[in-house]
Amino acid sequence: MKIPNMIIHSLLTICLFFPGISMADRIKDLASIQGVRNNQLIGYGLVVGLDGSGDMTTQTPFTVQSVISMLGQLGVNLPPGTNLQLRNVAAVMVTATLPAFAKPGQHIDVTISSMGNAKSLRGGTLLMTPLKGADNQVYAMAQGSILVGGIGAAAGGSSVQINHLSVGRISGGGIVEREIPTVVGQGDYINLELNSTDFSTVNRIVDAINSLYPSSAVAVDGRVVQVKAPADISQRIMFISRIESMDIVPAKASAKVIVNSRTGSVVMNQSVTLETSAIAHGNLSIIINTEPVISQPGPLAQRGETVVTQRSQVEIRTDEGNLMLLPNGADLGEVVKALTAIGATTQDLLSILQALKAAGSLRADLEII
Q1: What domains does the chain contain, in order, with CATH numbers?
Q2: Hey, which bits of 220-306 come out as E strands?
Q3: The dihedral of CA 225, 229, 235, 239: what is its sign?
Q4: For residue 84, what are the contacts with CB-CB under 8 A and spacing of at least 6?
Q5: What are the transmembrane regions (predicted)?
């Protein structure tokens, strides 16, 4: 799949428009409370009422066995050896997510997926299906009419577009039957777990919490912050809400470039830089020069330090004689935008990035997926 250069250039422009601005995030967007988690549920059930689009029972014997077992529980006993041709029934797997603190009687959404050879679940009804957790205990029951998405008529009603029909959803089709006990914290403490490991961000969270509640937060490792919380449950909930609403500026992530070799997508963060190198690729030649820039305090200054920074320049040439100079070319984003502007394809970008990494000029982790 080839992505137009115009699209790549637009995406890079949006992602790199404000490279130096750090935005504050709420702690609740960066971390979660240890022990407050969702739980996955699964069940096996039958969908009935299909318009001849169900399982081919000759190829899916488990559908027939399920129907016979269900009828037996309802008091209908079929003679042995009965050959059932059930084109309106489909065997399905039902999945759902049980949120933390869900109480019996509350409704949850369920997803129904065909596990046989049914052509469509559209118009079907899921029969009562128990949903079990990892401990094989029933935590919810699901039943209802299935809604299959991706169906719509074109303008004027001349045609109908139908997408994937073997998966559907029932909004609020599951009813919680059993509560999963959730403990907020351990003893006098709660633990904040970051979504990703970062020692700098952990340290900033600790400083922010201690500025509001002195000596209450301690960093356990690069992912967990332990916070002393009130023992009373109502006060503890209020305490957690205040902690989650606090704003901090997360530390910059490590430099990384992600390349999708199947779609040609190239994604990078603002920490990616380039060092001195030279690359020849097809009709392109890229030369990256980096030199130190020394800044000294004035002759009459009483204080000051000598600061050494790096200034780089990128020179891009083509066989047609085109020349492009980037005075601040240490930013890989600027180089990629320049390459796409002169007609480099996504495959060219992949080859150039790999060459830069192999030469040691790309100061970032290169991940190819």
Answers
A1: 5-21+253-368 (no CATH), 39-176 (no CATH), 183-248 (3.30.70)
A2: 224-228, 247-248, 256-260, 265-268, 273-274, 277-281, 284-295
A3: negative
A4: 57, 64, 67, 68, 78
A5: none
